[in-house]
C-alpha cells in the first residue's frame, strides 16, 4: 500500500517499526536504510520477535528488537539513548501468524482455547471475559468494540452457555444468537464478537491513543508517522488522534498566549486514508480493509 513510499526511509536514518510482527515491513525498511541506518523493532509477542529476528539476521547490528508494548515507545527509546527518530510505523491489529495458530485463540476457523493475548505474560485472557463478566458489561463490550447490533442477545446467550472453553464453542453460541436472516453476507456472524474480545483483552485502543502522541514527540522535524489500520474503530482512533496533534494553538482575541496550551506536533499528509489497489487485495486478501494514514512532524516550536 505504498507504505514505504510514504515513510520515505533514507540511508543512515533511524526508524521504529512499532508492530514488528514477522518482520516484513522491517526488512523492507532496512533494505533502504543500510548501511549506516538503524531499525528499532517493537512487538509484545514473543513468537513474533523470534520469527523476525531470524528474518532480519543478515542486517546484524543495524537491528534492535524489543519485547514491549508500543505504548511505552518513549521509554524504549530513552533506554537505547535515542531522543529522536526519522520515522515510526504502526501496522495495527493481530498478525497472520497470530490468527493462523489455533493455540493462540484469535480465530474461530479452528478450535482453540479462549486466549487471544498478544503478550503471553499478561494474566487476562478472553476466557476470563467470556465466562466471568456480568451480562450487561459483556454486552457493552461487544457493542463498543465489535459495533455489533446484536450484542445484548449474544451476551445473554453466552451467559446461558457458560462455561465456554473453546473458540469453536463461542463462535457457535454467537452464530445461534443472531437470527439467520440477519447474518452478515461478507463476514462470519462471529467476527464482530471475536474482534471485540481481542480489542478488550489487548487493550488495543488505549494503547494506540497513548502511542501516537509518543511517536509524534520523538520524531525529528519532517519525520513521518505511518499508521495502517484494519477496522473502523482503529481508523477512527488514528484519525482523531492525528487531528488533535495537528491542531495548533488557540488564542483569545487580542492575546498572544495560547489558551489551550497546545503545541502543533504534526501535519496530516493524508486527508483521506490511502487504501490498497485491487491488485494488492488480490495478492493479499487481508489487505481488503486496510487504511493508511500519514503525518509529518512540525518544527519543535510550532504552535500554529
Ligand atoms: C499486523 S502485525 C504486523 C505485521 C508486520 N508489519 C509484518 O510485516 O510482518 C501486528 C503486530 O503488532 C503487534 N502489536 C499489536 N499491538 C501491540 C502493542 N500495543 N505493542 C506491541 N506490539 C503490538 C502484534 O503482536 C503483531 O505481531
TrEMBL record:
Region annotated Disordered, chain positions: 284-304
Family: Belongs to the methyltransferase superfamily. RsmH family.
InterPro entries (UniProt xref): RsmH (IPR002903), SAM-dep_MeTrfase_MraW_recog (IPR023397), SAM-dependent_MTases_sf (IPR029063)
Species of provenance: Candidatus Segetimicrobium genomatis
Protein task: Specifically methylates the N4 position of cytidine in position 1402 (C1402) of 16S rRNA.
Record's keyword terms, sorted: Cytoplasm, Methyltransferase, rRNA processing, S-adenosyl-L-methionine, Transferase
Record-listed S-adenosyl-L-methionine binding positions: 23-25, 43, 70, 91, 98
One Pfam family named in its UniProt record: Methyltransf_5
Subcellular location: Cytoplasm
Main subcellular location of this protein, as a coarse class: cytoplasm
Catalyzed reactions: cytidine(1402) in 16S rRNA + S-adenosyl-L-methionine = N(4)-methylcytidine(1402) in 16S rRNA + S-adenosyl-L-homocysteine + H(+)
One cellular component term from this protein's GO annotations in UniProt: cytoplasm
Basic and acidic residues bias locations: 293-304
EC number: 2.1.1.199
Name listed for the protein in its UniProt record: Ribosomal RNA small subunit methyltransferase H
GO process terms (BP): rRNA base methylation
Gene Ontology molecular-function annotations: rRNA (cytosine-N4-)-methyltransferase activity
Amino acid at each position: 500500500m505504498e507504505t514505504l513510499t510514504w515513510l520515505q526511509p533514507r540511508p543512515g536514518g533511524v526508524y521504529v517499526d512499532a508492530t514488528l510482527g514477522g518482520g516484513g515491513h522491517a526488512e523492507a525498511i532496512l533494505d533502504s536504510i543500510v548501511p549506516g541506518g538503524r531499525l528499532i523493532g517493537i512487538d509484545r509477542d514473543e513468537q513474533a520477535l523470534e520469527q523476525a529476528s531470524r528474518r532480519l539476521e543478515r542486517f546484524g547490528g543495524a537491528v534492535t528488537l524489543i519485547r514491549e508494548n508500543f505504548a511505552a515507545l518513549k521509554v524504549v527509546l530513552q533506554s537505547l539513548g535515542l531522543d529522536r527518530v526519522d520515522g515510526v510505523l504502526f501496522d495495527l491489529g493481530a498478525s497472520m501468524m497470530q490468527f493462523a495458530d489455533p493455540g493462540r485463540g484469535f480465530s474461530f476457523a479452528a478450535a482453540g482455547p479462549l486466549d487471544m493475548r498478544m503478550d503471553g505474560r499478561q494474566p487476562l485472557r478472553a476466557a476470563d471475559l467470556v465466562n466471568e463478566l456480568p451480562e450487561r458489561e459483556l454486552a457493552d463490550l461487544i457493542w463498543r468494540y465489535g459495533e455489533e447490533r446484536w450484542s445484548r442477545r449474544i451476551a445473554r446467550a453466552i451467559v446461558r452457555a457458560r462455561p465456554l472453553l473453546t473458540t469453536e464453542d463461542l463462535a457457535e453460541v454467537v452464530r445461534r444468537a443472531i437470527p439467520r436472516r440477519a447474518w452478515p453476507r461478507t463476514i462470519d456472524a462471529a467476527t464482530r464478537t471475536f474482534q471485540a474480545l481481542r480489542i478488550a483483552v489487548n487493550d488495543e485502543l488505549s494503547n494506540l491513543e497513548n502511542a501516537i502522541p509518543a511517536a509524534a514527540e520523538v520524531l525529528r522535524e519532517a519525520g513521518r508517522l505511518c499508521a495502517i489500520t484494519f477496522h473502523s474503530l482503529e481508523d477512527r482512533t488514528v484519525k482523531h488522534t492525528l487531528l488533535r496533534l495537528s491542531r495548533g494553538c488557540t488564542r483569545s482575541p487580542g492575546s498572544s498566549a495560547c489558551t489551550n496550551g497546545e503545541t502543533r506536533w504534526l501535519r496530516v499528509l493524508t486527508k483521506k486514508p490511502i487504501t490498497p489497489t485491487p491488485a494488492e487485495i488480490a495478492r493479499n486478501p487481508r489487505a481488503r480493509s486496510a487504511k493508511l494514514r500519514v503525518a509529518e512532524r512540525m518544527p519543535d516550536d510550532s504552535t500554529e
